[in-house]
Amino acid sequence: FGIATDENFVITTTSRKEVTEDNFSELVQDGVTLYLLQSVDQTLVLATKERIDFLPHYDTLVKSGMYEYYASEGQNPLPFALAELIDNSLSATCRNTGIRSIQIKLLFDDSQGKPAVAVIDNGSGMTSKQLNNWAVYRLSKFTRQGDFESDHSGYVRPLPVPRSLNSDISYFGVGGKQAVFFVGQCARMISKPAESQDVHELVLSKEDF
């Protein structure tokens, strides 16, 4: 790597956890992306990419939303698909100490390449590991265990209150990815943990599949 013998450096995960002799076997595993930095909080000069591998056939993902929502017993499924996306923001902002902001934007221009639905919140944000886990099919935020780091750590399911901003409003429970592929053909998730200087972005596209 061209590192001088007298130069100090650290090796970190994309979540900025420093790799040491004590945690090496826990953090360094097949397929993990590592940073070689001068310090743990060093600013990245370029964007980095991390490949996510998962096994299901793409139809399992891009068509499951269509099946789930068309099996909605005659109800108009679009509001339920949007509710699934908003539910993610409700979970992310449930522990906000300040203003709780959730915006829903319908973009009919070509600013995103095609018309798009954008759900924007000021919640806790996700690390690269948590964003990776969001991409895993059928990995519920309430059942993640072991190596899976929840995207809503510490989240407690509230008491069921119909149509309340303090409750889980998702109706079918099929997950945000299936809701996205019912509404459109591409999911773009952009997230920044409040305590981190790094912004993480994930793209799942039917065209790429």
TrEMBL record:
SUPFAM superfamilies registered for this protein in UniProt: ATPase domain of HSP90 chaperone/DNA topoisomerase II/histidine kinase
UniProt xrefs under CDD domains: HATPase_SMCHD1-like
Gene3D superfamilies, A to Z: Histidine kinase-like ATPase, C-terminal domain (3.30.565.10)
| Entry-linked Pfam families | HATPase_c_3
Matching entries from InterPro entries are given as:
HATPase_C_sf (IPR036890), SMCHD1 (IPR038892)
One GO BP annotation here? double-strand break repair
Protein name from the UniProt record: SMHD1 protein
